[in-house]
Amino acid sequence: MSQTAAVAEMTKVGEGEGEVSIVAWPGYIERGETDKAYDWVTSFEKDTGCKVSVKTAATSDEMVTLMNAGGFDLVTASGDASLRLVAGKKVQPINPELIPSWGTVDKRLQSAPWHTVDGKHYGVPFQWGPNVLMYNTEVFKEAPKSWSVVFEPMDLPDGKPNKGRVQAYDGPIYIADAANYLMAKKPELGIKDPYALTEEQYAAALELLKGQRALVARYWHDAAVQVDDFKTEGVVASGSWPFQVNTLVADKRKIASTIPEEGATGWADSTMMATDAKHPNCAYKWLEHSLSPKLQGDLAAWFGSVPAAPAACKGNALLTDEGCATNGFDNFEKIKFWRTPTAKCEAGTCVPYSRWVSDYIAVMGK
To answer: Global pTM?
Structure first.
């Protein structure tokens, strides 16, 4: 069946098929097993009869691999996976008319380039946020002002070197974090977009990352492992997600986070439907549920993210009325959102993602 035919058939949402299978980031689909207060699955299952099964993925590359293998209905894809899934015909356009709450989506996200292609929406915005600099407040009495604390060899405020006490992300998209730092550190390189790098700009980012290799205690991709490393392995600074920060703060650890002066990369995640989804009715029911103010607010409180539906910013007991501001609602313009680098770019020719993958594996020495 062609993609177009599959889409044409969905003109209304019918009876659920009894289940829906989702590939998701850790912490994105909670049913109260970790903390009873955070459960947005049980009510959905009761209301719709659609049993939710979740496969967590730690990186965007893992999500793409899982979706390529098939067998899932939905995926909560970040911008560095979403366009690859569209190009690979692994996800289908969604019909906003079948999602009553579509109009409540933040206008800044409704037609964002990481899920909208040729005027068609391939995803329903879910949550967004920055890649923050997480740090130990016993080592840093004041928030670090620059990403240099993880990129350049130096003594930290406690007088000890940063070598062996910092981490970097185990994913090729982290090259953009190096490029973002160099935008401010070396303006002569002329980097305007950390996801569109000329050969010279790309070489400078790789050089920075090769130097960082000597400092890094671990390249992290598992949020739970990073939390443990900050507790027991002496790690004191790293790029991270608000989720790990919240987890450590809840555990009464001396941890905080900041967005340094160079700004930050970030993620805006969209729930996308597989081209061959076996449970499209349940999938559409989940897409509608995913925008409910309660789910949006509860998830934002749990993950430390920002809701895609701004109505969630008021009146949510877990998020509180200050939660959206705390999680960065007003930082949208400061964040350079993840997206897949392509060879064709404004500069003419840029280094494509396939090179990012092979070169970053070489940098990590794996």
So the answer is: 0.89
